[in-house]
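#struct-help
A.M.: can someone run this one for me? Single chain, 207 residues.
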Amino acid sequence: MRTTLLTLTLLGLAGAGGLLLATSQRQPIAVNRVAARSHASDAPVRSLLYAQPFALEEPAIHWWREERPTYRAGWLVVLEVDPAFVQPTDRAEPVLYVGHETAERVNHGWKCGRVVAVVPSATDADGFPTLDLARAKIWFGAPALPEQIDATVLEAAFAEASAASPFSSDEIAEARAHGGTRIRFQTREELDQQAALLVAEHCPDER
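D.P.: on it. Structure tokens below:
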């Protein structure tokens, strides 16, 4: 399985310029209350902590799909998860799905219980994701190698996940507030810098 080591490497290489690039475009909105959870606290996927829509000027390859499709928009998310589902392994592992797409996990998350992930999406007229988190159920599917998941397997997994559900509108609003305004990157490398900042914030042991 392709491991996104570039993200963690970039944390050390991005330097002050990368830090300013990412943080200057993050404008969190004040959150006045904590949203009630729609996912159980002992569920495989427990909460949505951060959600930021992004656009890419240069297309990137979605390596966690067999077809290797390209994408120019998506969501950068942080999820609280059951650590048992994200134990490091070179074998088949539970696949993280968001709606009708596989999510690319940036870090392992087994120590901190939090996963930073990139979720590719089709684009709207402005180049930002059309994926509606309010309609996208988020779950761990059966163990597999994500890079071997094709459209047929993905749709079968979606149909079998009858118990999975989207997060509530309040949870999404809170995660969006933490994520700040939508952000546009030139390249996937710049997106990786932003993801690396999130790994450092939520899972400092994986820096």
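A.M.: thanks! The CA atoms of residues 96 and 102 lie 6 Å apart.
D.P.: also worth noting: The beta strands are 45-61, 70-81, 93-98, 101-102, 104-105, 114-121, 138-144, 183-185.
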